[in-house]
Every structure is written in structure tokens, then in C-alpha cells.
Design a protein that fits this description.
Length: about 425
């Protein structure tokens, strides 16, 4: 019996480990893509932090910080919905290759301008506008392609959760390193790291295998504006999508903008510097990675709607309490909670959307409408809260944002039972539930 037990032990152990691993992690195709893109996000987050700090250092103006955040993403509101139509027609591999190469050029330009002492607010706004244009194509293309990397529809949730987890891992590491690099070597070092971070993702894009999608020829012949209208009508008439997109807009406008207020909060409320800002952003990102681990460990889609309702409520309460505190240690605890619940809300919404889009030919359009919440709504939130912080102070601005998040969560919670009833047949068809 002993030899037999020894023989079976490795197999049993492997079975246990295999059970613990998310299905997407077992696919080299998915793993290659999301690991590559997480490295590129590492550089992007560092650049975002460095640009905000650089603007505030050059101008000492909360309004100009808001304007810089606005220009970096304002193009998203204009072109992202149209991008969705194009993504439903174009080759996603070529789109992603183009966006990564362009991003390398822009980050390298920032590095050169900063090192040569030619950087100013005008250059930051110009390059920020170009970066926003690239993101309008890049971010929705990344999300649209992921469901086309998996072999089974039931694995889409796992792939999206793994995608969110690795992105938030990058988000956790980059603020800490970015704050230290800014303090020791200046913002140019962050821009240089960003330029290099796109190279692994370029390699992944060339390596992955994308499952073909049967295109509807009649839709391809239809005018772009007609396709665009169809995407908005589909999103509006399908209650689950309409509800989560409405809440996402509230969260992006009222809560996500706290990132741009952190340099002001660190300096004026905590009497700190770039390291202080780095600590705050790292605490937020640590919360994000914890939420990512939680979503990956769930391995199922059921209950995402409940997570969205709870986490958006906790996010609003945390922002209100954070705004009333001027102790660094306590602020770090609340930034952890804020980061965790921001990611839980937005990642759950993203994963939920990708699961319930039953028409593959509309995936690009619906995903782009979701991305507009980041690239279109967020810049207006940055602009609004930059001006609001200048008028009533950064603490009162954060309190106002938190209160609005609670209101949005309340209205979403009232629709939960209807949403669950509508999506249940979709989960049955996908084999997620019986």
C-alpha cells in the first residue's frame, strides 16, 4: 500500500493546486497577455503620478492640476464611443501594436523635455492630450480582446479578474517606487521607466493567439454613426448594463478624482512632500491589490452585483471620514480602504459587463462606453474637483465626493433584485450556473 500511496500523492497534490489556480492562469495565452499589459500599466501609473506632482511643483495651483488631469483624458469623452465602433471592425492586434509604439514615443519625449529643462505646463498639456487620445483606443481594445483569448465562455470572469489583479499589482508597486524616484531622481526617471515598460507588452501582443469572431457583414456596411447609435440604444435598453454604467459614471466623477487631489492633500493637510504622496498612493494601491486577490479567489460571477452595491457605499463613507483626518497613519488606513473599494466597484462592474454582453459584435461598443467613464468623465471630474478644492478646500471637496457616491450606491441598490432576475438566464446559457 505504501508504494501506491507515494505514487498517487503527486497526482493528488497537483489536483489540489490545480483546483486553487484560477482557470485563466492555466492558459499561456491569457497569462502572457495580462502579465505583459500589467508591466505597461506599471509605467503608466508612474507617469500619471509624476505629471501631477510636476504640475503642482511648477505652478503651486490646484486649478492647473485639475486642468492637467482634464487634458490627459478629455479626448476620451469625444472619441471613445466612436472607437468602440471601430474596434468592432478593426484587427485588435494591430490597434494595440500601434498604441504601444505611440506611447513609447510620447513618454520618451517627456523624458527628453524634462532632462533638458524644457518642460512646462504647455508641453504637459499638449502631450497629455495626445496620451489621452492613445488611451481612448488602447484601454477598450485591451478589455475587448481578453474574452477572445479564452477557449470557454465560462472562463471569461476568471480572465477579467486575473487582468484586474495584475493591473492592480502594478498600481500597488508603481506609486511607491514613483514617489521615491521623484524624490531622488526627479520626474524624468518615471517617464523613462514608462518608455521601457511597453516593450514586454509589445512582445506579448505579437505572441498571443486571438480567437476569430464572425463579423456581421451588414453591420460593417452600416454607417459608423448608425453603429454608434445601436451601441448606445443596446446599453440603455438593457437594464443591468444601464444601471452599472450609471453608477460607474458617479464613481469616476466623484471618487476616482481623489488621486489628483493627493498632492494638495499631502502638502497642505499633512505638511508632507513627494514621499508622503507616494505613501498615500501606495496605501490606496495596496487596497486595490487586496481587492484583486479577492476577486480572483472567488472564481465565479454570481454576486458581482452585490459587491458593486456594498463597495460603492463603503467607498463613499471612507472618503467622508478620510477628509476629516490630518494624521498620516490614520490617513493611510483610510486610503487602503478607499483603494480597495474603488477597485472592487469598478473591477466588478467591468467583469460583470464582459460577462453579460451576449452579442459579440457589440462588445467593442459597450466596452468603449464603459471606458468613456474613465477617459471622458474622469477628466471633467478632475477639472471640477480642482476648481472645487481651490474654492472650498481639498477636505470639503473630498467630503462632497464621498456623499455623492453614497447617493449613487443607494439608487443602484434599489435595482438589485431586477438586475439579478434578468442576468440569471445569461449565466445559465454560459454554464456558470445550472
Amino acid at each position: 500500500m505504501l508504494p501506491s500511496n507515494r505514487k498517487n500523492f503527486p497526482k493528488d497534490k497537483f489536483k489540489f493546486l490545480s483546483f486553487e489556480l484560477p482557470p485563466a492562469l492555466k492558459s499561456p495565452n491569457v497569462a502572457c497577455f495580462v502579465i505583459g499589459e500589467s508591466l505597461s500599466f506599471f509605467g503608466s501609473w508612474m507617469t500619471q503620478i509624476a505629471l501631477v506632482w510636476l504640475v503642482y511643483q511648477l505652478t503651486n495651483s490646484a486649478i492647473l492640476v485639475g486642468i492637467a488631469g482634464f487634458t490627459n483624458q478629455a479626448m476620451g469623452l469625444v472619441i471613445t464611443p466612436i472607437v468602440g465602433v471601430l474596434l468592432d471592425r478593426w484587427n485588435l492586434r494591430y490597434v494595440l501594436l500601434t498604441t504601444q509604439l505611440t506611447s513609447i514615443v510620447l513618454s520618451s519625449t517627456l523624458t527628453f523635455l524634462t532632462l533638458s529643462d524644457r518642460i512646462n505646463v504647455t508641453w504637459i498639456i499638449i502631450i497629455g492630450t495626445l496620451q489621452g487620445t492613445v488611451k481612448a483606443f488602447d484601454l477598450p481594445a485591451r478589455q475587448v480582446i481578453i474574452p477572445r483569448l479564452v477557449d470557454k465562455k465560462a472562463d471569461i470572469y476568471s480572465a477579467m479578474a486575473f487582468h484586474s489583479f495584475l493591473i492592480n499589482t502594478a498600481k500597488f508597486v508603481s506609486p511607491m517606487i514613483g514617489g521615491l524616484l521623484i524624490a531622488s531622481s526627479g520626474a524624468a526617471s518615471c517617464f523613462l521607466v514608462d518608455s521601457i515598460s511597453y516593450l514586454p507588452f509589445l512582445s506579448a501582443i505579437l505572441t498571443i493567439q486571438v480567437n476569430p469572431v464572425l463579423r456581421n457583414l451588414s453591420e460593417r456596411k452600416t454607417k459608423i454613426w448608425q453603429n454608434l447609435k445601436e451601441g448606445f440604444v443596446f446599453s440603455y435598453e438593457f437594464l443591468p448594463i444601464k444601471s452599472v454604467l450609471a453608477l460607474q459614471i458617479v464613481i469616476c466623477f466623484m471618487a476616482m478624482t481623489h488621486v489628483n487631489l493627493m498632492p494638495i492633500f499631502a502638502k497642505e493637510i499633512l505638511n508632507g512632500d513627494a514621499k508622503t504622496m507616494g505613501f498615500l498612493m501606495t496605501a490606496s494601491a495596496l487596497g486595490s491589490i487586496v481587492s484583486g486577490i479577492y476577486l480572483v479567489s472567488r472564481k465565479q460571477a454570481i454576486g458581482l452585483e452585490d459587491i458593486v452595491a456594498r463597495s460603492s457605499t463603503i467607498l463613499g463613507l471612507s472618503l467622508i471620514l478620510f477628509s476629516r483626518i490630518n494624521n498620516l497613519e490614520i490617513c493611510l488606513v483610510f486610503m487602503f480602504i478607499i483603494g480597495m473599494n474603488t477597485t472592487l466597484t469598478l473591477a466588478s462592474i467591468s467583469n460583470f459587463l464582459q460577462l453579460i454582453i451576449v452579442d459579440e459584435n457589440k462588445r467593442g461598443r459597450v466596452t468603449s462606453i464603459f471606458t468613456t467613464g474613465f477617459l471622458g468623465v474622469l477628466p471633467f471630474g478632475n477639472l471640477f474637483f480642482g476648481g472645487l478644492a481651490d474654492r472650498i478646500g481639498v477636505t470639503n471637496a473630498l467630503l462632497f465626493g464621498g456623499a455623492c457616491c453614497i447617493v449613487g450606491a443607494y439608487f443602484f441598490s434599489r435595482k438589485l433584485s431586477t438586475i439579478k432576475r434578468i442576468v440569471h438566464p445569461i449565466y445559465v446559457d454560459m454554464g456558470i450556473v445550472t
